[in-house]
Design brief:
Layout lengths: L6 H24 L4 H29 L6 H24 L4 H34 L8
């Protein structure tokens, strides 16, 4: 039987996702970068968010015995790792302050963590509603 995630964990997950994304995007908006640089960092954020949600879903599907091809599973891992590597390369070579580099790195990590947690909560809540009477998860 699946348990519904607690409201506190759901809220914390959404706050992590929102704070990471919003911080990253506000930083990009205010940055003194060329538009193509801003586009690169924006694309990396969107790519990373999609990759981790897809990875979380495929990992969960496999754990629950749902079919996930090895090719798709591998692509999910590759895309997740690639998004992190591309951000790292971009920040390494960027002509911005080290504090700005750290800001983007941590905002990105917070956003992708939040995306994984929100996806997990969504899946848990859906499964709990299918299983019948709600049982709250103490986490």
């Amino acid at each position: 039987m699946s348990t519904k995630p607690s409201a506190a964990f759901v809220g914390a997950s959404w706050i992590a996702l929102g704070a990471g994304m919003l911080g990253y995007l506000i930083g990009l908006w205010r940055a003194e970068m060329q538009l193509n640089e801003k586009g690169y960092y924006f694309t990396i954020l969107m790519f990373g968010l999609f990759a981790v949600v897809s990875l979380q879903k495929s990992v969960r599907d496999r754990l629950e015995g749902l079919p996930v091809t090895d090719l798709y599973y591998g692509i999910c891992w590759f895309a997740t790792i690639l998004s992190i590597v591309l951000l790292t390369i971009g920040l390494w070579n960027a002509t911005i302050l080290p504090s700005e580099k750290g800001f983007y790195a941590f905002a990105f990590l917070l956003a992708i963590f939040g995306a994984v947690a929100v996806q997990k909560n969504t899946r848990d809540a859906l499964q709990a509603s299918k299983d019948g009477p709600e049982k709250k998860n103490p986490s």
